[in-house]
Amino acid sequence: MKNLISIVILTISLCACTQHRSPAVEWTSTTADSLFVSHPDIFMSESADSADVEVFVNNPMQEIDGFGACFNELGWTSLSELNSKDRENIIKDLFSKEGMNFSVGRMPLGANDFSRDWYSYNETDKDFEMKNFSIANDEETLIPFIKAALAVRPDLKLWASPWCPPTWMKYNKHYACMYQDPETVQKNMRQLGVDDNITTVNHLTPDQQGAEGADMFIQKPEYLKAYALYFKKFIEAYRSEGIHIDMVAPQNEFNSCQVFPSCIWTAESLSRFVGAYLGPEMQRLGVKILFGTMERKNDLMIDTVMKSEAGKYISAIGFQWAGKGAVKAVHEKYPELKLVQTESECGDGKNSWDYCFYTWNLMKHYLSNGTSVYMYWNISLEEDGLSHWFWRQNSLISVDKDTKTYRYTPEYYLMKQFSHFIHSGARRIETSGKYDNLLAFRNPDNSIVVIAVNEESFEQPLKVRIGKFILPINLASRSINTFVIPKR
Q: What is the full DSSP assignment across 54-123?
């Protein structure tokens, strides 16, 4: 009888524990001294206590398509400095579900600011029929880069945008839009510790410069039609390589004059191009159109596009840089329209932890205001992060070409704290409370992901309520933390 009573008491105790304690919560964190570290499981407890943060599991918001980065030429040339095994391991880590789990990729349509040099797919003047179209340049860099990623992630979604059309399609007949003063370049190169060599200055003359609010693309029907054909030829050429482009944008940063490949358009002119030329051509090919990329906070530009004939072809709006100031307004006006963050701000090549936390705040801003995708910019660069046009930038991977070694940078770990745990099809979920430096998501399998960051130099204890349970956590100083609560 005593044994029977003991068993009953033990059973009741176990039931009580089961009722008041949740399944184990996975916790992974990153600091400058401990990178992507898994901690012992922690537990939530059923409690009526007050909390610092509440996560509303049943308040789903935008769907998350995924995370990714851009395939740039200098990304491939830097990775090519490594031995094939290291390069394969990096690609596997970036695109496998066991690693970074990147599911979206961007690429330039022709040269961009992190290409080896200027090129387009057709520099034959007035070749309106695109008889001399060729992607031969990409066969050396972008195509092997993308194919390596597809070998790991066959379902990778790819989208492309031009920085500049063929030069003969522009009024100034040049790939750039802004004058690049040789003396200034020389001075900057000396400050950067680069050899004094100005052979790569863009050679644009001051009278060839453009100005925001104007069009640099020749607004004649034969040019607009030929440019739509240029996009078509690109899609078909890549398909012949086994690479399917899911979506295109008509122009990168259409308001910005730059010393590197660029082309300014007005919103009205882009609307005409998309509505009458690009939209119908891409629709026949089954390719979606992303409008942008928007790098200004003026949401009225989106109204211009969406209320025109172009609107019926637009599947998403892309934002970067100062475009972050328009995201909230556009999301409120067009709540059903997919929004994409298209290019994370690039830093200064120092790959510092301070800039990593700056990027965290960018991610929080974009994802809190309705975006479905967050794109990093440079996947890989050599140690100095220097472009052909003398701009140093950050990257996920930094390669030392002298020693043939590489290292993952702080922003690599920040991105991984998101992309490894948040799966395509997840939904962002609402949070509320006195501590707001966090985001929460519900995965398709109903697991909950909470990402909490402590930017301060002291520890931050928090109580996070999820339903009737409290998750007690202690955020280390200057840390990025991901908590995965399994489905119940």
A: EEEEEEEEEEE-EEEEE--HHHHHHHTTS-HHHHHHHHHHHHSTTTT---EEEEESS--TTSSS---S--
Asked, as a colleague might, if the bond just before 266 is cis with ω within 30 of 0, I would say no
The kind and range of the H/E element at 382 are: strand 380-382
Tokens of 304: 């211009």
Sign of the four-CA dihedral 54, 58, 62, 66: positive
Pairing of strands 45-46, 53-64: unpaired
pLDDT digits (tens, 9 = 90+) for 388-441: 998 999 999 999 999 999 999 999 999 999 999 999 999 999 999 999 999 999
Instruction: Compute CA distances 30 → 112, 160, 339, whole Å.
Output: 33, 32, 28
Could you identify the residue written with the tokens 């309520």? 465
Pairwise CA distance, residues 136 & 237, whole Å = 10
User: What token pair was written down for 114?
Assistant: 């992190």
Q: Is 390 helix (H, G, I), strand (E, B) or coil?
A: coil
d(Cα 355, Cα 290) in Å, to the nearest integer?
A: 28
What's the pTM?
A: 0.94
Token pair listed for 456: 């301060």
DSSP string over 277-336: IIHHHHHHHT-EEEEEEE-SS-THHHHHHHTSGGGGGEEEEEEEGGGGGTHHHHHHH-TT
What pLDDT, on the 0 to 100 scale, is given for residue 186?
Answer: 82
Enumerate residue ranges in the chain where pLDDT < 50: 1-2, 4-19
- The CA distance from 292 to 301, in Å, is 10
Q: What are the structure tokens assigned to 131, written together?
A: 């008889």
The reported pLDDT for the residue numbered 430 is: 98
